[in-house]
Amino acid sequence: MLEQLEQAIREKLKRAGWTAMRALLADPSEEPAEDEVRRIEDAMRSLAAKGEVALWKLTYKYDDLAMMAVSRPDMDLGADLEQRGAWATAERVPLETDQKDA
To answer: Do the Cβ atoms of 10 and 69 come closer than 8 Å?
Structure first.
């Protein structure tokens, strides 16, 4: 399961350069199960530990909802979202930080 999630993340990064946890849910239109969120975040952390991605805390501007996101290691997701006037902000999460609430 972890390898499948890691591969799904890699595929999304090839296209967009970044992805949020919600984009990897089985049904992004519904509230996710806690174990599904945990599996996705574990896959993101695993890739970050391998140096394949950078971890980010993505926060919606209008309701302060936060979730984990990843980007290519060379991408500044926060600056990218700001330049595009996006609906969210992104703050880089250091690897040693366990970001359970992101």
So the answer is: no
